Each structure stands twice: as structure tokens, then as C-alpha cells.
Amino acid sequence: MSQAKEVRVPDIGDFDAVEIIEVLVGPGDTVEAESSLITLESDKATMEVPAPFDGQIESVTVSVGDKVAEGDVIAMAVPADGAAGAEADDAGGGADSGAAAPAETASETPAAASEPAPAAAPAATAANQAAPDSPDCDVLVVGAGPGGYSAAFRAADLGLNTIMVERYPSLGGVCLNVGCIPSKALLHAAKVIDDAAFFADNGIEFGEPKIDLKKLESWKSSVVGKLTGGLVGLAKQRNVETVHGPAQFVDDYHVKVDTADGERSISYRNVIIAAGSRPIAPPGFDLDHPRVMDSTDALKLEEVPKRMLVVGGGIIGLEMASVYHALGSEITVVELADRLMAGADPDIVKPFRKIIDKRYANIFLNTKVTALRPDDDGVSVEFEGGKAPAEDRFDRVLVSVGRRPNTDRLNLEATSLELMDNGCIPADDQMRTRVDHIFAIGDLIGQPMLAHKAVHEGKVAAEVAAGEKSAFDARVIPSVAYTDPEVAWVGVTQEQAKAEGMDVEVGSFPWAANGRSLSLGRDEGITKLIFERDTERVVGAGIVGPNAGDLIAEVGLAIEMGADMHDIGLTIHPHPTISETVGMAAEAAAGTLTDLYIPKKKR
Ligand SMILES: Cc1cc2nc3c(=O)[nH]c(=O)nc-3n(C[C@H](O)[C@H](O)[C@H](O)COP(=O)(O)OP(=O)(O)OC[C@H]3O[C@@H](n4cnc5c(N)ncnc54)[C@H](O)[C@@H]3O)c2cc1C
Predict the structure, then answer these.
(1) What's the pLDDT score for residue 548?
(2) Annotated region Disordered: where (predicted)?
């Protein structure tokens, strides 16, 4: 009788029919526990299903393209001697059999207020790695992105001797160099072009824009340079030593850094790992080809392609689509899921969608790109599903389907750390890993991959390293798409509230009734606040319209302060501003709104 055991899909979160995009093993292959067997791809994430035990694959019962859910059998495998143990028993779909956590996507989903940090495993004993008697620093920070530099500066402010290592010459990480800041600079340029076009029909004509890509790129770089240069000054003022070069762990207490002056070993009392993330591409997509871009390439503004395909309908892809559309590209967006910006409520995304429906050539939902074939003149793209043609050709393709943590570039195997299946480092709410003096923050500990989350985590890590009783206990983390119009959300969405059986009520205010919005020539905006019915406290919000990203901050504060609909409605908002829509959405829920007529609800 075969001793083979069934290998099933473990708990993969809220996914119930996820497509297999890769089968990594075949009959006869020897596998180690936790090695990847198949890769799944949902609209939100790429996940690997790991082997639950050491053993040999007898047969694989699924193929690429199949859809699977938790508990489905994917293979039969014979456990190696003594390897089956508890895991083998759990292999029958047990949630503990090495659950495949979602891999990283591009910051689409805001973390729910109460979402716990991933559980840290019990503290490891690094018996063979004694703490150095007089380490080079109290705190070593690896990575100088928003998480890393905030951690380093806070640690220094708390009196800790701090060294920060950054592999690139420029400080600021993805956010300042190839993320938040350059993209927002270009989005502002796009807005200027769009505003000028709007006024051409309304009394002021500037003529067709003449775009000098080199000048625009150099202006964008100057914005970046001001900020990254500012960080150099801030590090100096605080006596934070900055070492440039990639850091590799040697053990739990040392890294070596390959600097321009040779290898340098640095020992530390505490280390804060803040090495961030990088873009991923589906298998077979050649990101090295000049016509196939990731977000970093797209921000270089090498040319304005005539026809551009954006693969991925998340925030980053849609922001870059806004930029290139304004510069003159004909845009097609393709998205695997049935909607754009999956983290936000559909009614908040709808006004944005209506506008881009008019601007873009095509938006293909429920559609998969099955092949990208770049050549010297363009890129041939094959589509599957939705309303897309079987094949089309574009001048350039931007691939924006998610990001993965940089944990594979740090030689973490030399430490006592263990990674989650998605490659992230588990950290608790004090940002500690399973090793007490090793902290991890920012993108490399998981979603949401946002700069403002990284900054707050960095400060907590530094404070805990300094002996303070700090913890990351933010109720909510806002998400913003800086598209035109902006789409912003915070806390619980209406969809989430429904799924979780929360009893909520909604107050909504259309910007068509807001004087300031109309004076900007815009009337599509909506401000929606979500309140817990019994306490009347605000628990979430979704806002769409110009500057929605700035407005959402007020609701974030209201949620943190436990404000209810009356607190917000009775707060005097300046007139005429779009911020009034927040007050009026609260008044709509409280039944005190006079700027619109809303028939009385029975409360
Ligand atoms: C196009 C784009 C737009 C974005 N827009 C926004 C936005 O508007 N708002 C927002 O909140 N977020 C945005 N993000 C996400 C944001 O950039 C990240 O969430 C944020 O940068 C994460 O900060 P971090 O400190 O964790 O890591 P990072 O910013 O990735 O910094 C990590 C640093 O570590 C360094 N490093 C890596 N490995 C090593 C090593 N071995 N040794 C030494 N150094 C190392 C890297 O070089 C890097 O400088 C955007 C991202 C992109 C790509």
C-alpha cells in the first residue's frame, strides 16, 4: 500500500477559488518541509503553497490554470522517514500545516484597525551567538527608507548611538527616490495639464502643452534631491553615522557591509531591519526589456509611448496611468480582478472610474495577461478573459502587480530569524521579531506597504530599543490613490462592515452640493462616513474627489479619538472648503444637515 499522504491547500485567508499559476514540482521530486509546491495568484496576492513535510512527491493532482480553495488536494507525497510527524497529520488541510500567507501586493488594502500584527514565534535562543561586550553601536538600522531613517533619527534623539546602513548612495528608500515623492511630482504635472485643458473650454486658453520630458524629469529629480539631501543633513545633525553599501547578516549581532572602501563589520546591541520591498512580475514577464517597465522605470520618463498598457489596476498602476495619459499616451488598463482599487468601496471608486472610462482607450477587468512578447518596435500582449481581444500590441507595458519584501537579500539565514511563507519577517506590536534585540519594520513585515505605516513602526522600534514601553497601536492606517480624482479610504469599508456583520449607518455628502468643489470645476466627489450604529462613533470613511487624500486625515484623527457623528458634525469647518463635506456627511447621518434635503429616516 502506498504510504503517500494527501497534500492540501492550507488556510489561504479569504480566498475561495484561486488560480494556480505555477506548479513547481513533479512526480519523483524530493521536497523539504516549507519548500514551495505550487504558486497561486488571486486578484490581490501571489501565494506559495509549501510542502508540509520532508518527502517525495508521488503525484501532482492539479495543473496550471486550475482553481483551488482551502482543503483541496494538490499532490500525494510520501513523507521521508520520521518527517511526517504532526505536520503530516495536519497535511489534510489543517490550518497549521504551514499556511500560505498572501505575498505582497502594492499597498491596496488598508489594514483593519484591529488587525493584529503577525504573531511572533517564541523567542529564539541564539546560544552560539553571544552579544558583543562593546558593540559598535546601540542601534544599527538596515535600510534608509521612511521606516529606516525615522527609526534611526528617533533612536538618536533618545540618546542611542546609531548607525544607519543604506545600500544606495541616496537616502530615503523607495518612497523618496522611486515611489511616493517622484510619482506625486509627476501627478502634479499631470494635474496642471488637465486643469489647463479644462479651462480651454471655460474661458482661458493656454494652447496645446509642449512637453519637454528632460526638463520635467529634471524638475522631478530636483524635488527628490531636496528631500534626500535634507535627510543627509538631518542624519548629520543627530550624529547618526551613515554607511553606504549592502548589509549582510553574519549572525544575530553582526552585519558586514560591502562599502566603497572595502568590507566593514558592524556589531550592535539592537538592529532594526528596514530593508523594504521591490516590484514583482508574473512569471515570464521580462522586466529587463526596455519596453516592459516596472514603476521605477516608468518614473524615469524615458519617452511618452503612443499606446501604453498598464498591467494591474491597483494604486501604483493607476497613478502612473494618470501621469502618462496626461503626457499624451493612449492608456489601456488590464486587471485580473473584477474591479479597480479592490481595497476601497465600489461606490467610492465609481466616480473615478467614470472619468477614466472617458479618458482611457480600454479598461479590461477579469482579464489576465497570458503572454508579453517585447521586441524592438513594441510589445505583443496576449489576453485571456473579460472583454479583451486575444492579442494586441503596445509601445510600452507597465507591470504593476505587487511588491515583495527584500528579505532574501540580507543573508538572514545566518540569524535566528524565521520568515513567513510570503517572505516577510513576523514582528509583534513592539516591532520585535522572535529574537529580542532584532526589530523589523516597514514593507518587509507586510501589508499595508505604505510609507506612513513604516514611519510609525520605525519610531516604535527605536523607542522600544531605548527601553520605552511603546507599541504600534494605530486603530487605522489610511490609503490614498493620488489619481484624478483622488480616492481615499480609512478604517472599515461598507463592504467589510457587511461581511463582518457590523451594524453600521452611513452618512454621505455629494460634492455637487459643495460650493468650493464646484468652483474647482468638479462635481463628481463623494464623502462617505461610516458609523457604528449603537455608539454613533465613526469607524471608517471613503472619499473621492480632488484632494481626498488630504481630507481623509481628519477622519483618521476622528477614529483615533473615538469621535462620533455629533463631534464631527458640530466641529466648525471653514467655508468654503471641501472639508465641509466631512462635517456635512456626519450631519447627514445625525439628521441635522440643511444643505441637502434628506427625508427623515426612522432612527
Ligand atoms: C511608485 C510608488 C508610489 C508609491 N506611493 C506611495 C504613496 O503615495 N504613499 C505611501 O504611503 N506609499 C507609497 N508607496 C509605497 C512606499 O514607497 C513604501 O511603502 C515605503 O517606501 C516603505 O518604506 P520602508 O522604509 O519599509 O522601505 P523602503 O522605502 O523600500 O526602503 C528600504 C531601504 O532599504 C535599503 N536596503 C535594502 N536592502 C538593503 C541591504 N541589504 N543593505 C542596506 N540597505 C538595504 C533599500 O535600498 C532602501 O533604500 C509607493 C511605492 C511606489 C513603488
Answers:
(1) 98
(2) 84-135
Q: What letter would DSSP give residue 33?
A: T
Query: Hey, is 143 helix, strand or coil?
Result: coil
Asked if residue 231 lies in contact with residue 240, where contact means CB atoms within 8 angstroms, the answer is: no
DSSP string of 390-413, one letter each residue? SEEEESEEEE-S-EEEGGGGTTGG
- In the chain, the N- to C-terminal Cα span, in Å, equals 67
Question: In 70-159, where do the E strands start and end?
Answer: 73-79, 137-142
Ordered domains of the chain (ranges, CATH) = 5-79 (2.40.50.100), 137-278+405-465 (3.50.50.60), 292-401 (3.50.50.60), 479-590 (3.30.390.30)
Rounded distance, CA 496 to CA 420, Å? 25
What's the residue count for the chain?
Answer: 603
From residue 248, give the alpha-carbon distance in Å to each of 185, 276, 393: 34, 14, 42
- Residue nearest atom 19 in ligand 1 by C-alpha distance: 450
Which grid cell sits at 141?
538600522
Rounded Cα–Cα distance for residues 480 and 218 (Å) = 26
Looking at residue 31, its amino acid is: V
Query: Which distant-in-sequence residues (6+ apart) come within 8 Å of 295 by Cβ?
Result: 178, 179, 183, 279, 316, 320, 398, 400
Cα 391 off chain centre by: 30
Cβ count near 502 (within 10 Å): 15
pLDDT of 47 reads 66
* Weakly modelled stretches of the chain, pLDDT under 50: 1, 44, 82-128
The set of residues, in sequence order, having a beta carbon less than 8 Å from that of 183 and lying 6+ positions away, is 295, 299, 316, 319, 320, 323, 482
| Distances 423 to 152, 342, 395, 432 between C-alpha atoms, Å | 24, 23, 34, 17
Contact between residue 439 and residue 426 where contact means Cβ atoms under 8 Å apart = no
And the C-alpha cell for 512? 455637487
Ligand 1: which of 180, 297, 408 to mutate, judged by most atoms within 8 Å of the beta carbon?
A: 180
566 is catalytic: no
Q: How far is the CA of 423 from the centre of ligand 1 (A)?
A: 16
Ligand 1: list residues with CB < 6 Å: 107, 142-148, 165-168, 173-175, 179-180, 183, 246-247, 274-277, 295, 316, 406, 409-410, 442-443, 449-452, 454, 482
Residue 362: its H or E element: strand 362-364
Q: Is 543 exposed, middle or buried (0-12, 13-18, 19+ CB in 10 A)?
A: buried
Q: Residue 386: its pLDDT value, please?
A: 86
Q: What is the pLDDT of residue 115?
A: 34
Question: What is residue 539's three-state secondary structure?
Answer: strand
